[in-house]
Every structure is written in structure tokens, then in C-alpha cells.
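Saturday, quiet lab. Running sequence design on the C-alpha cells for the scaffold JK sent over.
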């Protein structure tokens, strides 16, 4: 049985609309995998499912003993999607970007498979969840007092404040020290404290500025690098 052109157009139209909305959301955030990439991924996944269904019905109509597995092509699409999604993830020092974009591409692939197989209710339900996650949850996240992690490198004179004194200063501001490394440069008469820090995200910039300002007032503190 060959799918009618109207049915194929309906399936592709649904995934095209859903992919466009999610792609525009990524595009407005300046992500490399934006509207065009998302559209191609979603429509491509839908086409793969339409082809799988067509192959299955054709072999069934011919009465052959062997029939192709409709899910095999979809599994290959998802495998390839893993490589494409990994390419959107970028790590710069302790900052990781692109994870949400990779998840959107993978999710759009699933929407394409759902719409391409004619599962309209499942596809629209998934699309609604994606809208909730991308448009409403970020508003909620800004209200949550989630933890944030940073690194601070403090360079002092050897006779400057000790590691415990600096930790006490940070703790007084609400910054928890998770780990510390200490290096000595006796020729330069310097020592360096490398702190792994944790604090509340809602006070991110306030705490960073306050900590740097107060630590610089301590005698013996030469340089502070916060990242």
C-alpha cells in the first residue's frame, strides 16, 4: 500500500511546523544548530519513517516471506543523530555549552519519527513538552536558588594570608570551598591558592564582585582570577 500524497504532506507539514518553532527558539539564542539544522533533522527523520513504512507495505503486498523491520531505519537515524548532537557541544574551561541544543536536535528527531509514522497524538504531545521545557521552564529556573560552581586563583606573597584565612573570608560571604590546590614560587616570593567554589546562582555576580573586592583589601594579596 502506497501512502496517499495528502497523508505524506500532512505528516511532513506537522514535523515541519514543530521543527520550525523549536529551531527558531535555538536561533534566537544564537546557537549554530538553529532553524535550518532543526528543520533538516526533523524532516529527514520523518522521511525515513515514511520510507520504512512504504518498504514494509510493498513487501507485504508482494507476499514475500521476508519483510523489512520498520524500526531498523529509525534506529540508524538515531545513531547518526548522536554524532550530530555531540558536535554541537562545546567545552571552554569549566563552561559547557550546547547541551540543550544537542537535546533539541535529538528530540526533533524523535518528533520526526513520530509524525513520519503517523503518530500525530504522540508527536503533538511531545511537541507540547518541548515548548514547556524551552519556553516556560527557563522562567522558573530564574526563580530557583540553584548551586553554581566557579574557580578562583588567588596569588599572594608568601608571607600573606594563609589558606584557612582566605577560606574563612569566602565562607563568611556564603561561598563554600569544595577543593583547594596550593603552589609556591619561592623565586618570585609568591604562593597561589586555586579554589573550587560553590555558591547560590541568584547571587552570582554580587558574590564574585564582593569576594574580589574584600580579598584585595587583605595585605599580601597580589592578583585574583575568577572564572
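Result came back. Writing it out in full:
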Amino acid at each position: 500500500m502506497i501512502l496517499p500524497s495528502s497523508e505524506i504532506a500532512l505528516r511532513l507539514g506537522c514535523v515541519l511546523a514543530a521543527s520550525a518553532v523549536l529551531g527558531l527558539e535555538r536561533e534566537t539564542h544564537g546557537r549554530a544548530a538553529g532553524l535550518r539544522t532543526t528543520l533538516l533533522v526533523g524532516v529527514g527523520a520523518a522521511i525515513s519513517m515514511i520510507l520504512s513504512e512504504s518498504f514494509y507495505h510493498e513487501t507485504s503486498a508482494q507476499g514475500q516471506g521476508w519483510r523489512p523491520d520498520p524500526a531498523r531505519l529509525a534506529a540508524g537515524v538515531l545513531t547518526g543523530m548522536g554524532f550530530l548532537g555531540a558536535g554541537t557541544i562545546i567545552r571552554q574551561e569549566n563552561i559547557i555549552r550546547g547541551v540543550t541544543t544537542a537535546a533539541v536536535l535529538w528530540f526533533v528527531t524523535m518528533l520526526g519519527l513520530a509524525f513520519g509514522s503517523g503518530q500525530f497524538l504522540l508527536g503533538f504531545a511531545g511537541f507540547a513538552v518541548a515548548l514547556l521545557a524551552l519556553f516556560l521552564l527557563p522562567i522558573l529556573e530564574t526563580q530557583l536558588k540553584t548551586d553554581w560552581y566557579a574557580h578562583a586563583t588567588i596569588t599572594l606573597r608568601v608571607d600573606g594570608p594563609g589558606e584557612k584565612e582566605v577560606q574563612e573570608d569566602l565562607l563568611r560571604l556564603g561561598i563554600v570551598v569544595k577543593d583547594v590546590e596550593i603552589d609556591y614560587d619561592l623565586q618570585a616570593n609568591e604562593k597561589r591558592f586555586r579554589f573550587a567554589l560553590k555558591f547560590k546562582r541568584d547571587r552570582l555576580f554580587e558574590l564574585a564582585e564582593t569576594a574580589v573586592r574584600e580579598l584585595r583589601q587583605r595585605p599580601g594579596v597580589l592578583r585574583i582570577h575568577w572564572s
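Notes for JK: Strands lie at 90-92, 95-97, 147-157, 176-185, 190-200, 221-226. The chain has two domains: 5-141, 147-226. Ask whether to fix the surface positions before the next round.
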